[in-house]
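<amino_acid_chain>
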Amino acid sequence: MPILVQKYGGSSVADEAKIATVAERVVQAKERGYEVVVVVSAMGKTTDDLLSLAHRVHPDPPRREQDMLVSVGERISMALLSMAIHQLGHDAISFTGSQCGIITNDRHCDARIVEIRPFRIQDELARGRIVIVAGFQGMSFKREITTLGRGGSDTTAVALAAALNAEACEIFGDVDGVYTGDPKIIETAEHIGVLDYSEMQELAESGARVLNATAVEFAKERSIALYVRRADGSGSHTLIRKNAPRLPGVVIGIAHDESVRVFATDGRDTSLDSGLLEFLDEQKIPGKQLTINRFGSGNGIAIVVSKEFIPDADHCRSLLTDRFGSKVELSSDLGALSLIGTGINESFKTLRRCLAALQANNIELFGVHTSSFRITTLIGGGQVAQAVKLLHQEFIEESIETTNSEA
């Protein structure tokens, strides 16, 4: 029988009633003839609550102990869902990440999967059981419990789909797919039916939380079709796969991150470049964007980091002061806004329009980063929502209106 991997996010298993609904959907897939593997996140806001508890006990908790703490959330979900499936008359068994053979590197809090040994899963599927797996976690080659970072349950699901040679991987959440912008901010956001892996990966890395970027990378490497669906079965869905190239320069979506941290050095002291990078590695803080400017007077090095890796900016500033004095600054009141599209920087037309729109609306610009699929602007955190609506109107809504009028 073909194997189907399903992943259910925290909002989908937030309480007993929702877990029962998920159990019914899983059983339906089993009765359609699939061997079913289900990956679950922690219930509701459990992970956030556990992290908050950790930071009340210690401002910068040891990462190993933090992993030990937050990994219990998914274990609760997996056991309860297995019980709910048994209640419906079907056999199910739950596994932690380590029990089902998910092996990671030894980084705590944002580990990467390096190997999957799914023998126990395969054995239980052969016995006719539905297998429930705790997402977001694995075991390092040093036999330590690790977690995969924000959205790690997506990565678990896609990696298992690859290891099991599954027919497809379905990602269930509280939205019916990917939109051209955050519907919570943009009422006119349009549903996107099909996305290429690279487009989705850029959206995810730039702040679109509907799917994890590392999960998309796994899917791309193994050509696994991803379906993003609403957990209650309503609405449409978004399919992520290898897609025919779009016309270059077309903005297909806008992603944002309301709060990022930016490290900046004094450009006059070039020794700070490697010193800051060494500091970030010691603190296990990965960067999103890196800029080194040595032209003209030189402005040194600037590194953009997600807030999730530095929740306590004041504590980090204290560490920087002890190490570098006043030569390294940490800004914590900035946001990032990204335009995504194939060949978006083939010319500077899109970037010029973006900068002109921001300037005309008095939105202060602190930096620009680009790739072949993305234009990212750093702006004041308090202006992110305004800028998202503005650029969605400029690049998405006006484009749709033009297409409709031409038709």
Summary: The CA atoms of residues 249 and 349 lie 8 Å apart. The longest strand covers residues 253-265. The chain has two domains: 3-241, 253-406. Residues 384-406 form the longest helix (23 residues).
